[in-house]
Structures are given as C-alpha cells and as structure tokens.
User: Fold 23S rRNA (Uracil(747)-C(5))-methyltransferase RlmC from Isoptericola peretonis.
Amino acid sequence: MQCPHFDAGRCHSCTLLATPYPTQVDEKVAHVRALLADERIDWLPAVTGPEQGFRNKAKMVVSGTVEEPVLGILGSSAGPYAGQGIDLTDCGLYPPALQAAFPVLAGLVTRARLQPYDATSPSRGARRRETPRESAWRGELKHVLVTLSADGELMVRFVLRSQEPLARLRKHLPWLLSALPQVAVVSVNVQPAHAAVLEGEQEIVLTDRRTLPMRLDGITLHLRPQSFFQTNTAVASALYAQARAWVDEVAPASLWDLYCGVGGFALHCAAPGRAVTGIEISAEAVASATTTRDELARLPEGADVGGHDAAWWADAVADVRFAAGDATSFARDGGSPELVIVNPPRRGIGADLSGWLERSDATHVLYSSCNAVTLAEDLARMPSLRPTRARLLDMFPQTSHYEVLVLLERS
Ligand SMILES: C[S@@+](CC[C@H](N)C(=O)[O-])C[C@H]1O[C@@H](n2cnc3c(N)ncnc32)[C@H](O)[C@@H]1O
Assistant:
C-alpha cells in the first residue's frame, strides 16, 4: 500500500505499509507463536478483514486556525514537521464515510468559531515562566473524535479545554445535523489540563440520542461517548463469534467477563441457564452494556438475533449482570465461576489477577489480548492453566499490532 503521508515522513503510524499484507499476517503469527512457545497449542488460521478503511474511530487533533482548521496529528517532536498540524483527513485507514465527514466537521469549527487549541506556544507573557498556567495556551478545541457504526451512523465528540464555546456549538448544532444527517450523537468532552491526554472526565451530550447502535453480526451494542469499543468492526465481530463458539463447547454454567467494556464478550456468550457477570472500570461502558442487555430481554416477538428468537434471548439474559469496578478486586471478593474471560488493556492482567486465576476454581480462561508480550508474561504466571487453542485476529493491518484469543484449560 502507498501513503503520501508515510512516504513524506509526516506520519509514522503504519510501520508495515511496505510489507505485502499476507507477509504482515505471517510475521504476526510467527511473532505470537514464538512468544507463547507451546507446541501443544492448536492454532486456528488467522482472521483477517479489510486491509484499509477498517478503522471505525478517528481521533483527530485539531490545529490550524478557525478559518482553516487542520484535522489530523501534530508532527512528532523530533522530525522536520515538529509541532506542525498535519492534515490526515485522507488517511487510508479511515472508511470513506469517515473521510466524508471530516470537511463538514471542519466547516462547523469555522461556523461555531471553535478556536483550535495551540499546544505548542503559550502566550508571550507566559513563555518567560518555566511552567505556564493552562490559561496561557491559546485556543479551545483540542480533538474531534468520530466513531462510525456499521450502519453508517456517526458519534461526534468535541474535546474542549473549557465550556466557553459550548453555547456556540449548541447554536450551530442544527446546521451540523442537517449537513450530516447520519450524525446520531454529538457530545462535548472537557479536558482542561495541558497534558498529552486525549479526553477528560466531564462529558456533555448535546443530542437527544445518547448512544450509537453498533450492529455486529449477532448483537447490536449501544456505545456511549466514553465507552471503549474495538477499533475494527469486522474483526471484532469475528472475535466475539470465536469466543462464543469456544465458550459454547465448554458450556459453563457460570462465566465472568472481566474488563467487559460495552459487554461484547458477555452478551455474545450468554445462554439460557448460564450466569454471566461483566465487570468494567468505566461506569459509562457498564451503562452501555446494560442498555444492550435490556434490549435483548425485550426483543419483539418474531425477532431473530444471532440465530435465536426473543424467548431464547429473554432466558439467556435473565441471569446476565454488569457492574462497575476493578477486575482484580472483584475477583478477590467474589467466589469463582467455571469460566473467566479477560480482555485487558495493553498492560495485561498483571501478577495479582494471574495469581488469583491460577489458584481459582475456574476450569477455563479465555484471554483476549492486544499485546502478546504481556499475554505471555501473564500466562507464565498461570502454569496450571494450559493454553489449548489460539487464534490471531488482525485488528490493526499495516501496523505490527494484532489481537490474539487464547483458550486455557486447567490441567
Ligand atoms: C481492551 S478493552 C476491552 C473491552 C471489551 N472487552 C470489548 O470487547 O470491547 C479493556 C477495557 O478494560 C477496562 N479497564 C481498564 N482497567 C480496568 C480495571 N482495572 N478493571 C476493570 N476494567 C478495566 C477499560 O475501560 C476497557 O473498557
């Protein structure tokens, strides 16, 4: 694949662009197999999706001016583009529906006079001080975050330094909704700190609709602005389908989904007679998961979701619950199910939760990881749980990242 931004040294994200795609996948498989280094694992063929246009979410830094905003990234501090705004609205990782939304969003920046935040140059007076106050930096709009659903709807979030532009944004919202009728949810996130943090804690939803329905092959998840969702919708669908197939083979009567996010694993693995508990640190994500569960509990007669009818689903989700909390603390406090699913951030589950799983009564663990290095470290801490089956899912083509799902069985 060719990319003008990569070739010119403006963007360095897609480190494998020059490698033919089948070779990328072979190298990722070799990487994870070498890390897990267990000849007894039955490896299924890797799952791949589209090689480009697969990202369902854009995290655009806004730079430039009110009249000419630039949506993309800031050039890395070491190179020739240091601190410069780089327009990435034509990035090949974004599907056409996201690319088409960017110029309209840039138009809103101009109409609502959302001054792009200037992260590089504090005002003159402040420059003399060693650590300028936050108010010394100019501008308000830090990022625009856009999520595209499988049905072409959009969730748009404006990350602002303060609520100062809020009234102007509200005033021009009708213009945005008529220019981009596919926008379902618009919100403002307030991130006051001058720090390399994407978003802050406070979220103000401006639209009547508060969730973006993300229809997968089986189930429609309801995403809220602050809840995590997997980057690649097609591969996420395959990930949940694979998890469900392995869980159904084990057929546990009780299951925990730790780090459950909006409930993708928990809800795909629900079944009549199976008690499912999802635990997640983000209360917003828990609210999203609960919305989807409640919707599945009340499907209209004649509905078919993932090959099951309304009565089956009412039974299946009757014993599904989600709660906000820390995964490790929950595990320490709450007995032990037959099967535990874990899908942690890149840092992995760590020594405490690995140790707890090693000593628990769970007969099976399903570990979904986006970082095989921490996965291998965690597995080494659980010698009684033997990896039996595994599958790489290429969630992030053109980069060295990937997702891997491993089924562990107590020996
Ligand atoms: C890789 S995401 C997986 C989400 C979900 N399983 C899915 O399929 O979309 C990791 C999730 O772990 C959550 N998380 C981070 N730290 C946590 C903790 N200490 N306890 C519970 N959840 C945590 C994050 O908020 C995020 O939703």
User: Anything to note?
Assistant: The two ends are 45 Å apart (CA to CA).
